[in-house]
Design a protein that fits this description.
Helix content: 25-40%
Structural class: mainly alpha
Radius of gyration: 17 Å
Strand content: under 5%
Number of helices: 2
Shape: elongated
Largest sheet: none
Order of helices and strands: HH
Distance between the termini: 35 Å
Length: about 70
């Protein structure tokens, strides 16, 4: 993006680490956007897999609004 006249829209948490390294400016969007839906999916054989549950539950809590 640095060498173009293009604009990209990405989550701030994704852009912030790269912005300083690449010399990019982070600007707020000029419009309000609705929240993006988050979909979690996995094969049913992992429904009761303890390791998968231990990863899935905190991931769901971090991504899904209360």
């Amino acid at each position: 993006m640095r060498r173009t006249d293009l604009v990209v829209t990405v989550p701030e948490s994704t852009a912030r680490p790269a912005a300083a390294d690449l010399g990019l400016a982070l600007l707020p969007l000029p419009v309000e956007l609705p929240p993006a839906p988050v979909h979690l999916s996995w094969h049913q054989r992992y429904d009761t897999d303890r390791a998968h549950v231990r990863l899935r539950d905190p991931t769901r809590a971090a991504l899904v609004s209360p």
